[in-house]
Amino acid sequence: MNILNINWKPEFGIIFTWFAMDKNGKLAVMINNCYGNLPRCLLSIENVEILLDQLNEYIWEESSIYSVYPKNKKGDLKLDLYSYWRHKNNLNKETILNELKNDFNDSGHYSEANLVINKGFFEYQAIEGSFEGEDYPVGFNGNTKMGDYFRYLIPTIYASIEDFPEELRHGIAVSDMVDFTTDRLLDNDKINEYFPRIYQK
User: What is the pLDDT of residues 6-64, one digit of tens each?
Assistant: First the structure.
């Protein structure tokens, strides 16, 4: 059963991961953590959940359709903002970064850091929690709310649209105003302003 459609609203339940391109062609993995909006341009695609699943399976190299993947970029990652709620037991930035890198060294391909180090994606996470204010991005000075997307991880070598098979590229939401290298927080209420269209060649 497909949950995502033009009338879908974020709520506690399933976490959706979608993909975005900024005005300079850089790519990001966007994790909605239940409460982040998805752009209308994606929700308008018939069977978009299947498309998002195919994109996710592809970047994790678990696709049943594709067997050839881009070469590992062998870059590095930088930690920007991070969830208070998830890391409240230890908010030390260096510790969190070391945990990410250790997990990459131990788990490699299956680690979260692999998407940044070898795939070249920025990663944005939506603010979550069980009530408003329980979570916020550590390191950000300003007002935030549940569902706002914060920049979590930054690659040093960037992914390209060419890394995706042509048949999957229309599942990537595109912005003419966002710059992943400088924009640390994306207002959840403006997600359709940020990403008004899907990728077209």
Answer: 999 999 889 999 999 999 999 999 999 999 999 999 999 999 999 999 999 999 999 99
SS3 assignment for 129-192: CCCCCCCCEECCCCCCCCCCEEEEEEECCCCCHHHCCHHHHHHEEECCCCCCCCCCEECHHHHH
Q: What is the pTM of this model?
A: 0.96
Please classify residue 148 by burial: count the beta carbons closer than 10 Å to its beta carbon, then call 0-12 exposed, 13-18 middle and 19+ buried.
Answer: buried
Specify the pairing of strand 149-155 against strand 77-79.
antiparallel
Please give the Cα distance from 135 to 128 (Å, whole number): 6
Domain parsing of the chain, residue ranges: 19-62+71-198
